[in-house]
Amino acid sequence: MAIHKFAVGDNVTFSPNRYEDKSARGVYTIVRLLPADATPQYRIKAATDGRERVVVEDQLAGQRA
């Protein structure tokens, strides 16, 4: 089982893949860690409009302090 790189409450930058809506790119907060066999998944919430989505870890980057 894969280990999650991010924790609940972390702010991350979401970068959608080429088949997803590019307007979804931006800052999100991790709200839940989801189980994964190969690639960790997360439920994230947008800082701007509060929308939530499920993404894989490869689409996220940590925020610099």
Spatial order of the strands forming the largest sheet:
4-3-2-1-5
**Shape call:** globular
Task: Bin the strand percentage.
Answer: 35-45%
Q: Describe the biggest sheet?
A: 5 strands, antiparallel
Please give the number of β-strands.
5
Helix and strand content put the structural class at: mainly beta
The helical percent reads under 10%
Could you give the distance between the termini? 29 Å
Number of helices: 0
pLDDT < 50 runs, ≥5 residues: none
H/E element sequence: EEEEE
Q: Mean pLDDT across all residues, rounded?
A: 89
Brief summary:
The protein is mainly beta. The protein has strands at 11-14, 26-34, 41-46, 52-56, 60-62.
Observed structural traits:
mainly beta; 65 residues; five-stranded antiparallel β-sheet
Structure write-up:
- The protein is an all-beta fold.
- The chain has one domain (11-62).
- Helix content is 0%, strand content 42%.
- It has strands at residues 11-14, 26-34, 41-46, 52-56, 60-62.
- A five-stranded antiparallel β-sheet has the order 4-3-2-1-5, with no helix packed on it.
- A hairpin with a 5-residue loop joins β3 (41-46) and β4 (52-56).
- It starts with 10 loop residues before the first strand and ends with a strand.
